[in-house]
């Protein structure tokens, strides 16, 4: 979508005041938001490990332990599009405060249940619904707040700092959650509730530039709710470059989402201990953390479509190589190398959404992307599970690599993707 096209769609909407033009490290609003998100993401990673363990302790059923995550993911997908509509129509800082308050209260209710010796499966599943419902709204509002707090020329650096946060939390959260759970079952939930509360307090002090007054409701905004919620998806789908980029990224997400599951099964087939498996799978998050330093150089060196194709091609090769009998530690190295490209891909997608969709549609466009990606990840995990049920892990990763290779071939033949360019403000 050209800048001229995006600008023309702003004719009837006043522009948001400019973000403060100061070095990123002195941008108080962004750093407060980032610090709050560090607490929130760390708490989320701790809880991701603790909830299944508690469900397993309460029910003794691995099926119900898995159902907790399934309920959370399904609710997130269901609420993705409405979250984008809310993010585009209401104050984003207040919405994020509501999200953090809901997560803190939901987690706090589990702490209270432990203190009263009243932990139950229905209560835990209700918490899964609450946490899953607010997750896409939190992601959309946080993404849009970053855009309002950071000038366009600093956006890559800001998003890279966001990636550092995500991968650091993914690396440290699970082992910390396990250590806290070993102290007492309630401890990880106390820490998680405090983390969400800390994020809420820090967000209170974030002061984004005041939004321009809303123009009178236009004809498009008088459309039915379902039509309004899908505006972002239609905006992305209507532009060949954005449509192709979104679909290619979704294909990558579909294939990479079940990689950890496949590696775990593969290593168990080889007789590795749970400790060795844990260190091996952690390599993906470590690679992602290391990959944050590559974001700026890769974005300067390669056009977005070329970078996307390069990352997709190397990912297909690395996933396929997991089937090779190159020693027990080869999967850890392959996962590390696979993780290196993750931050560059996510920042690439964010830049395209941030810059090439009008501000009044960014929440819905971002939510549409996250919904498509989440649905693809769920489908990928399900299909990989079926493959693992009937075939070896080596066959499964080869099938996954073949699917991504096929998507890469289609992308390579797509002129819009090959010739895509960075938005002008991003180049400034």
Word description of this protein:
The protein has 428 residues and is mainly alpha-helical. Helix content is 78%, strand content 0%. The chain has two domains: 16-207, Up-down Bundle (Growth Hormone, Chain: A); 227-428, Up-down Bundle (Growth Hormone, Chain: A), CATH 1.20.1250. The longest helix is centred in the first third of the chain and has 32 residues, at 28-59. It is globular and about 55 Å long. The chain crosses the membrane at residues 32-58, 64-83, 179-206, 244-264, 276-295, 307-326, 332-353, 365-385, 391-412.
Main features:
428 residues; mainly alpha; disordered N terminus; Growth Hormone, Chain: A
List the helices and strands and how they pair.
Elements: H1 3-8, H2 28-59, H3 62-89, H4 92-115, H5 121-149, H6 155-183, H7 187-204, H8 225-229, H9 231-237, H10 240-256, H11 259-269, H12 274-291, H13 295-301, H14 304-321, H15 330-340, H16 342-356, H17 359-390, H18 393-412, H19 415-418, H20 424-427
Helix pairs in contact: 2-3, 2-5, 2-6, 2-7, 3-5, 3-17, 4-5, 4-7, 5-17, 6-12, 6-16, 9-17, 10-14, 10-16, 10-17, 10-18, 11-17, 11-18, 12-15, 13-16, 14-15, 14-16, 14-18
Region (Disordered): 1-20
Transmembrane segments: 32-58, 64-83, 179-206, 244-264, 276-295, 307-326, 332-353, 365-385, 391-412
Main location: membrane
């Amino acid at each position: 979508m050209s800048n001229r096209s995006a600008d023309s769609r702003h004719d009837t909407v006043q522009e948001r005041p400019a973000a403060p033009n100061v070095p990123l490290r002195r941008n108080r609003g962004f750093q407060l938001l980032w610090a709050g998100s560090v607490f929130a993401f760390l708490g989320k990673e701790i809880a991701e490990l603790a909830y299944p363990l508690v469900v397993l302790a309460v029910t003794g059923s691995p099926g119900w332990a898995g159902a907790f995550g399934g309920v959370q993911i399904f609710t997130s997908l269901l609420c993705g599009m409405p979250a984008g509509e809310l993010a585009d129509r209401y104050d984003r800082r207040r919405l994020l405060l509501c999200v953090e308050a809901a997560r803190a209260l939901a987690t706090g209710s589990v702490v209270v249940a432990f203190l009263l010796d009243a932990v139950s499966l229905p209560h835990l599943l209700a918490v899964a619904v609450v946490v899953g419902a607010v997750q896409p709204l939190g992601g959309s509002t946080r993404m849009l707040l970053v855009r309002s707090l950071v000038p366009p020329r600093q956006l890559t650096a800001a998003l890279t700092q966001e990636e550092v946060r995500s991968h650091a939390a993914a690396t440290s959260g699970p082992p910390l959650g396990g250590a806290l759970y070993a102290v007492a079952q309630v401890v990880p939930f106390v820490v998680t509730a405090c983390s969400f509360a800390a994020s809420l307090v820090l967000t209170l002090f974030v002061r984004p530039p005041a939004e321009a007054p809303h123009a009178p409701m236009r004809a498009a905004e008088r459309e039915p709710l379902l039509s309004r919620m899908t505006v972002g998806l239609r905006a992305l789908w209507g532009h060949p470059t954005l449509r192709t980029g979104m679909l290619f990224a979704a294909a990558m997400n579909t294939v990479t989402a079940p990689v950890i599951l496949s590696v775990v099964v593969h290593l168990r087939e080889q007789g590795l201990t749970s400790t060795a498996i844990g260190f091996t799978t952690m390599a993906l998050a470590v690679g992602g953390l290391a990959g944050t330093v590559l974001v700026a150089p890769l974005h300067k060196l390669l056009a977005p479509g070329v970078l996307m194709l390069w990352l997709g091609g190397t990912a297909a090769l690395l996933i396929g190589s997991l089937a090779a009998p190159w020693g027990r530690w080869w999967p850890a190295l392959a996962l590390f190398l696979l993780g290196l490209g993750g931050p560059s891909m996510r920042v690439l997608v964010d830049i395209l959404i941030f810059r090439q969709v009008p501000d009044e549609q960014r929440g819905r466009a971002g939510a549409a992307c996250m919904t498509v990606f989440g649905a693809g990840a769920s489908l990928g995990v399900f299909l990989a599970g079926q493959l693992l049920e009937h075939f070896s892990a080596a066959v499964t990763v080869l099938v996954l690599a073949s699917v991504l290779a096929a998507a890469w071939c289609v992308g390579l033949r797509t002129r819009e993707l090959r010739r895509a360019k960075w938005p002008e403000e991003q180049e400034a």
